Amino acid sequence: MINNSRESVIAVLIICAVWIAFTACGKGAGKSDGEPGVKFTVTDLKSGKVINGEDLRGKVVLVDFWATWCKPCIEEFPAFNELVKQYQSRGFEIIGISLDEGGEADVRPFMAKHQMDYYVALGNPEVNKLFAAEGSPLPLTILIDRKGKIRNRHVGFTRKEVFEKEILELLAES
Question: pLDDT at position 130, please?
Answer without folding.
Answer: 86
